[in-house]
From TrEMBL:
TM stretches of this protein: none
Pfam families to which the protein is assigned, alphabetical: PDZ (PF00595)
Protein name as catalogued: PDZ domain-containing protein
Organism the protein comes from: Ancylostoma caninum
PROSITE patterns to which the protein is assigned, alphabetical: PDZ (PS50106)
PDZ domain boundaries: 1-83
InterPro entries attached to this UniProt entry: PDZ, PDZ_sf
Origin: domain of life: Eukaryota
Disordered: annotated span: 28-47
Organism taxonomic ancestry: Eukaryota, Metazoa, Ecdysozoa, Nematoda, Chromadorea
């Protein structure tokens, strides 16, 4: 357990009227109040967008592939986030 859940959301896209998929990594434990400096530097905040997991773009992964990548990561996981 890395302390976050994955949420996939689709938004209307300006390109050709399709849908754009965005994957969010939501922290399991959210503290009240504004983010602390350590949270901003090292932590996961609500609304952080998950871009890559272990070097692979989450856009190219199915839900099952993404879940398995997180489950099978062991003690560390490489995650690229956009805040």
């Amino acid at each position: 357990d890395f302390g976050f859940s994955i949420r996939r959301v689709q938004f209307p896209s300006s390109r050709r009227g399709g849908l754009r998929t965005v994957v969010f990594a939501e922290p399991s434990d959210v503290r009240a109040g504004p983010p602390r400096p350590d949270d901003l530097k090292n932590g996961l905040l609500p609304g952080d967008q998950l871009i890559k997991v272990d070097g692979r773009s989450v856009d190219a992964m199915s839900r099952e592939e993404l879940q398995n990548a997180v489950r099978n990561a062991g003690n560390q996981i490489g995650a690229h986030l956009q805040r």
